[in-house]
């Protein structure tokens, strides 16, 4: 039994490739800013409510200052309701002169219960989740939002003609200057999905999601990528006993558990053709028909992340290790506290390759928690 357990655990070891398959596109500042190449077929996208106006202005200013004043990519703002004059005026002004800004409504068919959902059951489940303290689970609109961001945004008529998008949320900040074009670099390097923060999901929000996806993977015979494996912690129980663990949440049929690692999708730069592919569409349809967007609180972050782990090769993902980023009370920082520096409240720059500094003119806010790179390091094993 001991040997069986050791062999089982060993089968989850990630074999690191000999070379780094996902280095940063550039290190340090590009001087002058690398903005002379033709633009990619790309847009910045923000889903927001009228009440998010001040957070939206904050985010737009940050993206404009750090990046888009030099590149002038268009913005698309999406809302399930009619945009207020105030939102359009303030946010349009924040984007500035010479930037194309569109305020769009989400069609009803993309936002709301599909006909196969039992709405009474959904409401009952939402109340129950709210009583259990699952954040936002009691808000019906939050569920519609997660479903839209998982399976519809890329088909919105305003995004249809674009290939690349950069998702921006209200109240975020970029803390480094971005002096090259990330869309062009993604394209050039064959990347499909880019992220900056990887962290743990709360297991209660998505109790059956991993099981559903892992069953789907077996059913349509998708081979395991090292990224999929990196998302799993093997069980220490021997066969056949570990099978009983499969009854618990976030476990697959064999009893192994999703370690809850996922990409924080409030920032992502990705190729919408990935989401528009038959493989992703069929995976989304399968999840949607299951009802977990309503009966549980499946977020678009774990859905995008597990789908990428299933359907992409690890080297098709890009970690924007040079993009300092703040959302809510968490941040990714290109400067890390050393033990000594931590005592003095100081940060030292992270170095890349030949001792060059990551990122350009980065600042770090010591008052905001830096996400520990545990989950990130596990994912990065797959690329070097
Ligand atoms: N139009 C519209 N946008 C929404 C709605 N609910 C959420 N959003 C947007 O969807 C995105 C995610 O919502 P958040 O409330 O930030 O949820 P979250 O990122 O999971 O949670 P936080 O960690 O609190 O930010 C944001 O861009 C919101 O503005 C809604 O009902 N209507
Ligand atoms: Mg948010």
Radius of gyration: 21 Å
Number of helices: 14
Bound molecules: guanosine-5'-triphosphate, magnesium ion
Number of domains: 1
The mean pLDDT is 95
Query: Which sheet architecture does the biggest sheet show?
Result: 7 strands, mixed
Number of strands: 19
Strands of the biggest beta sheet: in what spatial order?
3-2-1-4-11-6-12
GO molecular function: alpha-1,2-mannosyltransferase activity
Keywords: Glycosyltransferase, Transferase
InterPro entries: Glyco_trans_15, Nucleotide-diphossugar_trans
Family: Belongs to the glycosyltransferase 15 family.
Describe the structure in your own words:
The protein is globular. Helix 2 packs parallel to helix 3. The protein is built from 14 helices and 19 strands. It is an alpha/beta fold and 384 residues long. The mean pLDDT is 95. The strands form 6 sheets. The protein has a 7-stranded mixed β-sheet. Strands 5-13-14-19 form a 4-stranded mixed β-sheet. It has a two-stranded antiparallel sheet with strand order 7-10. The chain has one domain (18-231, 263-326): Spore Coat Polysaccharide Biosynthesis Protein SpsA, Chain A. The structure holds guanosine-5'-triphosphate and magnesium ion (MG). Belongs to the glycosyltransferase 15 family. One of its GO terms (molecular function) is alpha-1,2-mannosyltransferase activity. One of its GO terms (cellular component) is membrane. The active site is at 268 (nucleophile).
């Amino acid at each position: 039994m001991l040997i069986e357990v050791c062999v089982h655990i060993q089968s989850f070891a990630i074999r690191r490739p000999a070379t780094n398959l996902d280095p940063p596109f550039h290190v340090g500042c590009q001087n002058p800013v690398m903005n002379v190449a033709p633009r990619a077929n790309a847009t910045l996208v923000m889903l927001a409510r009228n009440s998010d106006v001040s957070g939206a202005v904050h985010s737009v200013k940050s993206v404009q200052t750090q990046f888009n004043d030099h590149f002038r990519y268009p913005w698309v703002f999406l809302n399930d309701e009619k945009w207020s004059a105030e939102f359009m005026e303030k946010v349009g002004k924040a984007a500035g002169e010479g930037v194309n800004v569109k305020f769009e409504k989400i069609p009803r068919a993309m936002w709301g219960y599909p006909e196969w959902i039992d709405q009474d059951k959904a409401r009952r489940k939402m109340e129950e989740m709210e009583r259990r303290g699952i954040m936002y689970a009691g808000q019906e609109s939050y569920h519609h939002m997660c479903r839209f961001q998982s399976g519809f945004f890329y088909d919105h008529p305003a995004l249809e003609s674009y290939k690349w998008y950069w998702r921006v949320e209200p109240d975020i900040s970029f803390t480094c200057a971005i002096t090259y074009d990330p869309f062009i670099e993604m394209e050039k390097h064959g990347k499909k999905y880019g992220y900056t923060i990887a962290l743990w999901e709360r297991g209660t929000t998505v109790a059956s999601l991993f099981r559903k996806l892992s069953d789907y993977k077996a059913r349509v015979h998708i081979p395991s990528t090292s990224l999929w494996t990196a998302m799993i912690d093997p069980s220490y129980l021997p066969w056949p006993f570990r099978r009983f663990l499969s009854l618990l949440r976030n476990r697959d049929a064999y009893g192994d558990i999703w370690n809850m690692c996922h990409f924080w999708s409030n920032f992502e730069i990705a190729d919408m053709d990935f989401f528009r592919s038959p493989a992703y569409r069929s995976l989304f349809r399968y999840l949607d028909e299951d009802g977990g967007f309503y009966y549980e609180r499946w977020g678009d972050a774990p859905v995008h992340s597990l789908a990428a782990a299933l359907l992409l090769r690890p080297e098709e993902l890009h970690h924007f290790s040079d993009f300092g980023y703040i959302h809510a009370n968490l941040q990714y920082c290109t400067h890390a506290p050393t033990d000594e520096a931590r005592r003095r409240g100081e940060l030292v720059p992270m170095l890349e390759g030949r001792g060059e500094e990551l990122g350009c003119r980065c600042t770090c806010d010591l008052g905001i928690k830096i996400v520990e790179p545990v989950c990130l390091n596990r994912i990065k094993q797959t690329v070097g």
